[in-house]
């Protein structure tokens, strides 16, 4: 039987973004744990909404002509925070507070990345 | 209960630095050993009297054992606590409790590093954890950049305000013979320096130098008969909230808010009663975050506070009077150097001595704003 981290990895490899929540409610948990941090409460897996908001962002410079790449912190809609990157943005368009949606890039080591969510009025 | 500290009952009997700047041809244990020798000479205490060793080295996970071997001692206790640059403040907490309890009689805290001579890059075995690593953050720089970016967003802190931290540090360094980086440095120089991981630029970053430092601690009843002015330890607290700052509730609030408040409560002091502050300025944002968290200005006002000149020579709160990690030295884990500068201020023997200073706060930071530890030193009038 695998630990929670391996279970999360296995789900990601199947194209599913899981997150843990305390049984009976409470703030979601990431990275995966064997029990809820701070309380020890039992956790269960739920499908993440994949929706989130950029909490902070940095652009890491590389030797030209390589373009800079971003590293962000994302507050997931369920409450947990994770590191990530936002694809398809520039230093001018990537903003703290921007709505983003997670996407899984499949491969030998699948990676979770984020795309900007088009804001619609109303 | 908890947080019972032997206020003033343990003192710094000896303190030293060695090889600050460049000291080629020395291993880390040789650097640390030399600093221990100098600190013991400073205290007029013989090597054979040392019975507790506290040390963290960048390249030796068993540094406590190595130091016992190097010094040729059979210590009653060794402590290898690794909380990054806050390790040494944590060592001091343990040493104070053990000395006051009578378990130890003479404790040495030491550090040494050769990272400038051995390659010129920060030497650390630490890495991003497996959850952060897929996104290739620079470790530790990008983590501090994320804190800085959020601070700017949340409070309107400006690029120029960040730069003023580096300028103040350089002004102090310019009159400290031991400081490695000297010469003019302007706000424009900092904001136009090479961008590394936005918003952090090259001149927002601490130096990469060699350097070693050590302190000898004894009970105050012994230290007061020593050759140097008495420097009692009034309070000391370590606080740990996480390892990766990714997991902070609010990335603009560090565990310094806890360690500082606890240390000051032990000392019976408020921020307004601290005469000088030595803190771990790995990046310019650190100084702003820690001044806020330690209570020297309100949360969010740190940028305006540092830009006002308050922390510069002649300002209302002398901060990093040796030039700090930004301009004096940064041999990887800076905590010892903040404490030694605080001790020098309390002895009245600092290069940039603050007239009449009776209390000094030294603050260490480890990991990615993860481990925070605060020590408050006094002089003979404070006990």
Automatic annotation (TrEMBL), chain A:
It comes from Novosphingobium sediminis. The lineage of its organism: Bacteria, Pseudomonadati, Pseudomonadota, Alphaproteobacteria, Sphingomonadales. This is ChsH2 C-terminal OB-fold domain-containing protein. InterPro entries: ChsH2_C (IPR002878), NA-bd_OB-fold (IPR012340), Thioester_dehydratase-like (IPR052513). Residues 45-103 form the ChsH2 C-terminal OB-fold domain. Coiled coil: none annotated.
TrEMBL record, chain B:
Signal peptide: none annotated. GO terms for molecular function: acetyl-CoA C-acyltransferase activity. It holds the Pfam family Thiolase_C_1. It comes from the Bacteria. InterPro entries: Thiolase, Thiolase-like, Thiolase_C_2. Residues 237-379 form the Thiolase C-terminal domain. Transmembrane segments: none annotated. SUPFAM superfamilies: Thiolase-like. PANTHER family: ACETYL-COA C-ACETYLTRANSFERASE, NON-SPECIFIC LIPID-TRANSFER PROTEIN-LIKE 2. This is Thiolase. It comes from Novosphingobium sediminis.
């Amino acid at each position: 039987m695998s630990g929670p981290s391996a279970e999360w990895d296995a789900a990601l490899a199947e194209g599913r973004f899981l997150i843990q929540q305390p049984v009976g409610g409470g703030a979601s948990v990431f990275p995966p744990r064997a029990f809820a941090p701070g309380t020890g409460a039992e956790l269960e897996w739920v499908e993440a909404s994949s929706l989130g908001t950029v909490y902070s962002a940095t652009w890491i410079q590389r030797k030209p002509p390589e373009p800079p790449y971003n590293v962000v912190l994302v507050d997931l809609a369920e409450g947990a925070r994770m590191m990530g990157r936002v694809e398809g943005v520039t230093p001018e368009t990537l903003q703290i507070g921007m709505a983003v949606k997670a996407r899984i890039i499949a491969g030998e080591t699948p990676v979770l990345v984020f795309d900007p969510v088009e804001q619609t009025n109303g | 209960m908890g947080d019972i500290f032997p206020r003033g009952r343990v003192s710094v009997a000896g303190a030293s630095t060695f090889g600050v700047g460049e000291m080629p041809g020395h291993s880390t244990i040789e650097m640390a050993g030399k600093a221990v020798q100098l600190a013991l000479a400073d205290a007029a205490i013989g090597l054979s009297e040392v019975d507790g060793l506290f040390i963290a080295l960048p390249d030796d996970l068993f540094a406590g054992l190595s130091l016992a071997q190097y010094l040729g001692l059979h210590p009653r206790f060794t402590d290898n606590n690794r909380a990054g640059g806050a390790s040494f403040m944590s060592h001091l907490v343990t040493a104070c409790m053990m000395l006051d309890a009578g378990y130890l009689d003479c404790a040495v805290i030491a550090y040494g590093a050769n990272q400038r001579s051995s390659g010129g890059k920060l030497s650390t075995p630490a890495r991003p954890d497996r959850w952060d690593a897929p996104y290739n953050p620079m470790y530790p720089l990008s983590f501090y950049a994320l804190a800085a970016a959020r601070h700017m967003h949340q409070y309107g802190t400006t690029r120029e305000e960040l730069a003023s931290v580096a300028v103040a540090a350089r002004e102090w360094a310019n009159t400290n013979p031991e400081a490695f980086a000297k010469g003019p440095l302007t706000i424009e120089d900092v904001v136009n320096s090479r961008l590394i991981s936005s918003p952090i630029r090259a001149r927002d970053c601490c130096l990469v130098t060699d350097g070693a430092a050590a302190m000898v601690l004894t009970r105050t009843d012994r230290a007061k008969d020593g050759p140097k002015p008495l420097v009692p330890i009034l309070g000391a607290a370590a606080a740990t909230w996480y390892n990766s700052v990714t997991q902070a509730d609010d990335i603009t609030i560090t565990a310094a808010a806890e360690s500082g408040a606890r240390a000051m409560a032990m000392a019976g002091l408020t921020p307004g009663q601290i005469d000088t502050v030595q803190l771990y300025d790995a990046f310019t944002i650190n100084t702003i975050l820690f001044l806020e968290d330690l209570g020297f200005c309100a949360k969010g006002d740190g940028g305006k506070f540092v830009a006002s000149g308050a922390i510069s020579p002649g300002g209302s709160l002398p901060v990093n009077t040796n030039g700090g990690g930004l301009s004096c030295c940064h041999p990887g884990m800076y905590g010892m150097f903040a404490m030694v500068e605080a001790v020098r201020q309390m002895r009245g023997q600092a290069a940039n001595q603050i007239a009449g200073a009776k209390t000094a706060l030294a603050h260490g930071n480890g990991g990615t704003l993860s481990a925070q530890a605060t020590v408050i030193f006094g002089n003979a009038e404070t006990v």
